[in-house]
Amino acid sequence: MTKRSAETGGKRGKQAKKFVEQQNTAIELALSVASVQESKAQEKVEKRRQSLSAAKSKEDHKKNSSKSSSKDKLKEKKAVIAAQKAQSKKQKAKARKETKGHGAGGHGGMEKGMDVTTRQKDTLPVRKRVSFA
């Protein structure tokens, strides 16, 4: 124990480490780091503002432009095709009704006294029976 106390010079307790000789230098370093970080943050904010304003002006330009985009044209074409399909479907249904009405009965409606179940059985296709012998 005497050997250790002799080497340390008799000082006891933990000593503070000194990384910089002068405190002013440490403060200047901290200020410079803070200013760099602040400038980076300001640049990010400015970029974000510019991108938002550019996107906004682009949207306004799209709304005001007389040209319709390809997506709008595609939507219009799809709507036209859907309308045509619906129209052809209606025509087919109408044709089916006409052929049913003018078929065997003659006037389109069911005759009086005819049972509904027998009418449905007549219109159903005949099932083929299979036997496994």
Automatic annotation (TrEMBL):
Superkingdom of the organism of origin: Eukaryota
Region (Disordered): 36-133
Biased amino acid composition, Basic and acidic residues: 40-49, 56-79, 109-125
Protein name in the entry: Uncharacterized protein
Species of provenance: Gloeophyllum trabeum (strain ATCC 11539 / FP-39264 / Madison 617)
Lineage, uppermost ranks: Eukaryota, Fungi, Dikarya, Basidiomycota, Agaricomycotina
